[in-house]
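Exercise 7.
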Amino acid sequence: MGWCTAMIHNCLNRRPALKSGVHRQVLMTSIGWFVGYHLTKWENYTNARRDRDMTQYMRLHPEEFHPQEKKTYAEILEDFHPIR
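Solution. The predicted structure, written as tokens, is:
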């Protein structure tokens, strides 16, 4: 995303897209990587916290979560009747 931002900026200013402002391209790429890394890290933390809370709730309230009976594939899939 950062590199594309530098390309779009060059195009809007009517400069050669790839050859002008290489320092800006490197800077935007670094900023894009940094922001993306921390957003991914925050997302993983948020998902892990939610999973932890749900697991804790399930551990504290086992009466609400009954174990399901195991089914075989034959019980889940429909019978196959080829049409010829």
